[in-house]
Amino acid sequence: MEIKRQTGQGLIAIIRFNWPFYAVACVSLLAAVILLFYSSFPYPILLTIFILILSYALSASLLISFYIYDLSELYQLRWLHDKGQQRVLTVNAGFDETSNMIRRKLPNTKLVICDFYNPKKHTEPSIRRARNAFPPDPESLSIETQSLPFGSESFDEAYAILSAHEVRNEAERIRFFQELNRVTKTSGKIYINEHLCDWKNFLAYTIGVFHFHSRQTWLRTFSEAGLHVEAEIKVTPFLTTFVVRGDGNTH
User: Fold this and answer.
1) Domain locations in the chain?
2) Which of 36, 56, 164, 213 has its CA 20 to 30 A from that of 141?
3) Are strands 184-194 and 239-246 parallel, antiparallel or unpaired?
């Protein structure tokens, strides 16, 4: 089943949730251009370099975001397969675009939606704006990352789509994945879709790349949580879906 989205929906959301950055960048760019052409600024070469860097940062982030969130197959969720009557957990960080898509892709699945957003721990302003613009799913459960309210092996699969990086503290993140490991059946898989802190995403988001975690950080988190990686799926050069499974020692 093809998932249809409005043209530019992803890019518009990116701008809407991060508008202070784009507003400051555009004002700074305009001010620099005015200084360069309409004043006797003493260091025109430095100003020109600043304009070029800022122009690149703006255009690259917008164009690549449009490619990822509007043109790519990210939201087709090709890695999802309907296996009949299953119980599946999906967790988000306060902004949930994918639960309805999962419902459509897996119509026979019992989907449990959890929201781990905690404004005291997860302080990213863009998440607050997204949450205000799009309230949580009515069926969503508010949870704590360090103690999921489910019994061991309650779910056949678990999904964390563009959300787990919001758990900034490493100890909390490891505990969160220990909990995901515990509540997912030993025979089941956990899917984690993320940008990585790598050179490709640096080209796309410049200093914004440091909001993401490196591949090595994710591998260390999984290992500490008793999980091993079965596959890494590249949806685009900028996104990785880790497919992990527990070793059976935490249940």
Assistant:
1) 9-71, 78-246
2) 213
3) antiparallel
Instruction: Say which CATH architecture domain 78-246 belongs to.
Output: 3-Layer(aba) Sandwich (3.40)
Pairing mode, if any, of strands 110-115 and 141-142? parallel
Do residues 167 and 217 make contact, with C-beta atoms less than 8 angstroms apart? no
Q: What is the pTM of this model?
A: 0.90
Distance separating alpha carbons of residues 130 and 19, to the nearest angstrom: 11
Q: How many CB atoms lie within 10 A of CB 241?
A: 19
3 state SS for 37-56: HHCCCCCHHHHHHHHHHHHH
Residue whose C-alpha is closest to residue 35's, from 23, 44, 26, 27: 44
Contacting residues for 235 by C-beta, under 8 A, at least 6 apart: 72, 73, 74, 78, 193, 241
Tokens of 239: 């996104």
Average pLDDT score over residue span 179-185: 97
